[in-house]
Design a protein that fits this description.
The chain is an alpha/beta fold. The chain contains 9 helices and 8 strands. The chain has 2 domains: 144 residues, Rossmann fold (3-Layer(aba) Sandwich); 65 residues, DNA polymerase, domain 1. It catalyses: 2-phosphoglycolate + H2O = glycolate + phosphate. Its EC number is 3.1.3.18.
Length: 218
C-alpha cells in the first residue's frame, strides 16, 4: 500500500474565510482599511509569516513591525479557527476509503502545528499517522524536508503527495515524488504550468487515481 501525504489549506479544508476574518480583525485593530477575501486567499500557501508580510505590503503597515504583527494575527486566528472553515466535499469519505484500503495517510502543511491539530480535531479528521506543521522543522515547504519527514513517519511504501498549489507542486518536484493536483483549491497559476502526475476536481476521483498509480508502479 502507498504512503499518501496531503496538504491541508486549499486541499482538504477551505480555511480562507477564517484566515480572512483573523486578518480583518487585526487590520481593524490597527485602524487600517481591510482587504477582501480573494486578496487574502491569494496570500495563502507559504505560511503565516509570509502571509503577514504580503498584508503589510498591501497596507500602510510598516515591515519593521512584522514579528509583532504576525504574533497578533496568529492570536486572532487562534480565536476564530474553525468558525468558518469547511471540508471540501467528499474529503472525509475519501480519507475513510483510502485508510480502509490500507494506505498510510499523513499531513504536511505550512500552517503551525497547534492550529493544525486544533482544526483537525474540530473537523474530526483522525486519519493521519503523521502530521508535520510549518513549525515542526527549521524549514517550510517548498523545501522538501517537511514532506520527506512526513513520509518517513509513515514507514515503507510508494509515495504520493496531494496538494492544490504552486508551493505544493514545487515541494513534490524537489522531493522527487508523484504529485496529485486538486484543482479546486488556492492555485493561482493555470494547471498546465504546474508539474503534476495527475489532476482531480472531486475527491471522489482520488481513490481510483491512487489505484491507477499503484498499478503503474507495480
Amino acid at each position: 500500500m502507498a504512503r499518501i501525504v496531503f496538504d491541508l489549506d486549499g486541499t482538504l479544508i477551505d480555511s480562507a474565510p477564517d484566515i480572512h476574518l483573523a486578518v480583518t480583525r487585526f487590520l481593524e485593530e490597527e485602524g487600517v482599511a481591510t482587504l477582501d477575501l480573494p486578496t487574502i486567499t491569494s496570500f495563502i500557501g507559504n505560511g503565516l509569516p509570509h502571509l503577514v508580510r504580503l498584508v503589510i505590503n498591501a497596507t500602510p503597515l510598516r515591515i519593521e513591525h512584522h514579528a509583532r504583527h504576525t504574533k497578533r494575527v496568529m492570536e486572532h486566528y487562534d480565536a476564530v479557527n474553525g468558525q468558518l472553515t469547511r471540508l471540501y466535499p467528499g474529503v472525509r469519505e475519501t480519507l475513510n476509503v483510502l485508510q480502509g484500503q490500507g494506505h498510510q495517510l499523513g499531513l504536511c502543511t505550512n500552517k503551525p502545528s497547534a492550529p493544525t491539530r486544533a482544526i483537525l480535531d474540530e473537523m474530526g479528521l483522525i486519519h493521519f499517522q503523521a502530521v508535520v506543521g510549518g513549525d515542526s522543522l527549521p524549514t517550510r515547504k517548498p523545501d522538501p524536508d517537511p514532506l520527506n519527514a512526513a513520509f518517513a513517519e509513515l514507514g515503507e511504501g510508494p509515495e504520493i503527495y496531494v496538494g492544490d498549489s504552486e508551493v505544493d507542486a514545487e515541494t513534490a518536484r524537489r522531493a522527487h515524488v508523484p504529485f496529485l493536483l486538486f484543482t479546486q483549491g488556492y492555485r493561482k497559476s493555470p494547471v498546465a504550468e504546474l508539474p503534476h502526475s495527475a489532476t482531480f476536481d472531486s475527491f471522489a476521483e482520488l481513490p481510483d487515481l491512487v489505484a491507477q498509480m499503484m498499478a503503474d508502479t507495480a
